[in-house]
Amino acid sequence: MYFYETYGLDGALNMALDVALGEIVDDVTLRFYTWKVPTLSLGKHQNADDLDYEYINAQGYDIVRRPSGGRAVLHWDELTYSVVVPKTHELFNTTVLEFYNTISKIIVKGLNNLGYPVEIVEGKKKPLSNVCFQVPSVYEVALDGIKVIGSAQTRTQDYILQHGSIVLISHDEVKHCFKSTKNLEIPLVGLYNYKVIPLADIVNGLKEAFEEYFGEAEKLPYEDQLKIKSNELVGRFLWKK
Predict the structure, then answer these.
(1) 1, 51, 118, 132: which one is catalytic?
(2) In this structure, is residue 241 part of a structural domain?
(3) Residues 6+ away with beta carbon under 8 Å from 121
(4) Is residue 129 domain-resident?
């Protein structure tokens, strides 16, 4: 398994890096990252007609279109993870839900070891609104029954990419980013509602849990190639109204 960290990058580059990893790596790759400014990410096929651009622009939020499916997430005060599995790995042949379940179990173990009493929930199969964190989906991770990690997945003929938002401090501003969800009730929880520990410790705890499943992590050996490829892809994720 390869391990890679990038912090404080803009939204388009974060998405480009996830896709570039899928196109380059030859082994399972775990990445952790954060965002330069609060960024609204929309699922690959999510309708953007309902966006409240006046509110989004006034707040200084960025917008990106994810390569994965799912609903909108406002990335803010969180740790984001991504996992890339190439077609040569046995997990590549699992179903969408089987893959979700596997990754959720690893994350739960890592967070439990850090003292966070998170658990996998059965969740809902169908979304209720544009907002990802309104309710948990199947095999997602919850704290006190409230969704604390929102994940999304994409698959190509060469790799699976799953990435997700691990909420540290919860915000409800995402509902104001859409015209139709201003009065939406969103249950809110973040890991720091339970216990505050340094971000680096959370990263290390999760990394150790992934290493238990995938083997000892190595530093990503493709950084120069990754930089070139992500620069080629970044334009795909720059938001165009």
Answers:
(1) 132
(2) no
(3) 136, 139, 140, 141, 142, 145, 147
(4) yes
